[in-house]
């Protein structure tokens, strides 16, 4: 069946329409709109589209709304009305000791407030910037973006962080994984490659010196043969 | 005592150590072209880290590209003075230093300097000398050598893209830059392979007569640095000194001017379609991975097209008329772009990508070969520097103009039409002007031959030297294969 996410940042009126494709085999189906088990009457109907109108004013009005078309076979489409999703970084954020870590949390809509938590074992500890001003900095360059900066990183700062955005009708969370590496990490492949370069350059130069000497030796022989 | 071995010093080896030089050039050219493109993977993270806009980060790439092309003349001057090897090794060191210091940058401005200028300059010191030294090691097989060396670019891009992704996921952007700095040091290995070649290695130490000395001197001006000429001409002023290292007299060279105008025009539409191919595909509703796959198809076809074009360009039918082949490749490229808006489905875009990859590879494979063909190996060093700094402007303008067209009309097709039209125009211009150039050269060759056979012409040492110089400066297409035939005919007449 067909699914669609509908983000609802604030209370609003929403029209949901199910349209039947003209080439479909289904003719004159019986259409019902449902939320869970509750049936919703549609307000407008055309030969192949059915619409309902909803007033979303609190979080109980959010959820999955389905339109079911019954004929020889049954097809349905689902609309997920939900709080807007926020976007973080799925892959781990890699940083280094002594450096700063930046985690950026984004949404396409305007959030009312942003909160960050760090995990200490299994509990969620909120990050309050006033208390730890020299270690954590939380900034919101625009209503849809929040930045957490962690300064003077140490290995213990690694772990899971949560970003939470509050909208009118609910909250949305996303997760970040922070990994703090020491400089030794990339240094090993670095030294390996530099060693390889030095070895190759030396080998090439030595080979050249060797082949030049061989050539000079051959030329000397040639001159000597000529003089004879 | 043995008679004067007054023949010409041996010409380019066309093989032997030349293949190792080719390997080095392959690496060097690959890094120079592919490295800036491969950096794009890091931009999103860097943008988030420094809190800048995406275009501010994209400037890193633009500065790098501008420096690599803009520093061309400096590269040429250095190669004219010191030869390819030290320049490339120094360039490799610069690249390494640039990226290593970039790993410790604390602002976007510092990134502009470390990645943009320093690494960009290092890549410039890699690109030009690599192309130049191919001309010194290859003559008969030069188109193949050029095609193979230029194939380094797509191969390196296909290697760097997944490598950068892997480095980024494991070491973040700082660690990746550190490791990439080490990887760029391999350009020094490429440079080590660039064994110097020229009159210095090929002089035969036997007693020579005056004429023999002329012939040898003439050959020296063809192969080695152009320092021997001014010796007899007395005091030099500052302009002559610069001219000694960067040959500005090229601007009077007919073939060079044709190439310059045609190429500067072509680059206006050359790179924009690649930049916008994936966004265009996504715009028509194709998903991100399929859109990226189009670029992969382009790269693979490109990889095969370059050496293949080199082989075709080397064949005896095409080589004397290589300028026509080049003009055709450019026009073909333009035609692809003009037809692209007609491709509406994914399979249509796949076909477009394949043909685009083919056309792109053909043009790139012959890009430097045709310039060498027009000005000769000796003046190529200066020519390539002057050409790249001129192309620098249009290369940088191309994608932004395309972007403006897309934003203004909200439709990608005008960008494709603009690129296609510009390239078809450039191809046609080059075709017509090279037809004219070939005819003028044939005429001059005929005049030169009638003058040589004239027994009444008084030959002083200076005059014969002047003739040699005229030959090496106005010698248009390397008519070596044709000239041998001519000399063969002459021998028959005299013998």
Automatic annotation (TrEMBL), chain A:
Transmembrane helix as UniProt keyword: yes
Positions of transmembrane segments: 190-210
Keyword terms, alphabetized: Immunoglobulin domain, Membrane, Transmembrane, Transmembrane helix
Pfam families associated with the record: Ig_3
Top-level lineage group: Eukaryota
Gene Ontology terms, MF aspect: cell-cell adhesion mediator activity
Listed GO biological process terms: axon guidance; dendrite self-avoidance; homophilic cell adhesion via plasma membrane adhesion molecules
SMART domains referenced in this protein's UniProt entry, alphabetically: IG
Example of a GO cellular component annotation carried by this entry: axon
Gene3D superfamilies, per database record: Immunoglobulins
SUPFAM superfamilies noted in UniProt: Immunoglobulin
Ig-like domain residues: 1-78, 84-179
Name of the protein in its database record: EMB protein
Organism in which the protein naturally occurs: Rhadina sibilatrix
Biological classification of the source: Eukaryota, Metazoa, Chordata, Craniata, Vertebrata
Gene transcribed to yield this protein: Emb
Automatic annotation (TrEMBL), chain B:
Domain Major facilitator superfamily (MFS) profile: 18-438
Origin superkingdom: Eukaryota
Membrane topology, from the record: Multi-pass membrane protein
Keywords: Cell membrane, Membrane, Symport, Transmembrane, Transmembrane helix, Transport
Basic and acidic residues biased stretches: 445-473, 480-495
Gene Ontology CC: one annotated term: basolateral plasma membrane
Pfam family, one: MFS_1
Region spans: Disordered: 215-235, 445-495
GO molecular function: monocarboxylic acid transmembrane transporter activity; symporter activity
Similarity comment text for this entry: Belongs to the major facilitator superfamily. Monocarboxylate porter (TC 2.A.1.13) family.
Protein name: MOT2 protein
UniProt organism field: Rhadina sibilatrix
Gene from which this protein is expressed: Slc16a7_0
